[in-house]
Amino acid sequence: MVFSLLIIPQNAILYDIVLLKGEYMKDCCGGHKMMHGGGGAVYGLGFIGAAVYFIQHAANFSEGVFGVLRAIVWPALVIYKVIGLLHI
Questions:
Q1: E strands, 1-88, in order
Q2: Residue 33 near residue 21 (C-beta atoms within 8 A)
């Protein structure tokens, strides 16, 4: 914990706050800090952008539905093409 380097008297209010924060982190997250990446947000924005693009370029309803399906899987297709180009 970051606060373990501080020398704080046990009767100080700040010590109680630090102790409570440490206990909260143990109980809340199984001892792990809450540092999650934003990959879900990036994927969501990419999905929305791709869906709008494919729907705008659709000539009929079935192409629009197929466009939404393509918007869901486009990251996998991009990775597949990149791996193919790199000959991995």
A1: none
A2: no
Q: CA 75 → CA 46, 49, 66, distances in Å?
A: 9, 12, 16
Name residue 66's amino acid: F
How far, in whole angstroms, is CA 52 from its chain's centroid? 22
The distance of Cα 2 from the centroid of its chain, to the nearest Å, equals 24
What residues contact residue 74 under an 8 Å CB cut-off, 6+ apart?
A: 46, 50
**pTM of the model as a whole:** 0.52
Give 30-80 pLDDT, tens digit per residue. Answer: 655 655 667 788 888 889 999 999 999 999 999 999 999 999 998 888 889
Q: Looking at this protein, which amino acid is placed at residue 48?
A: I
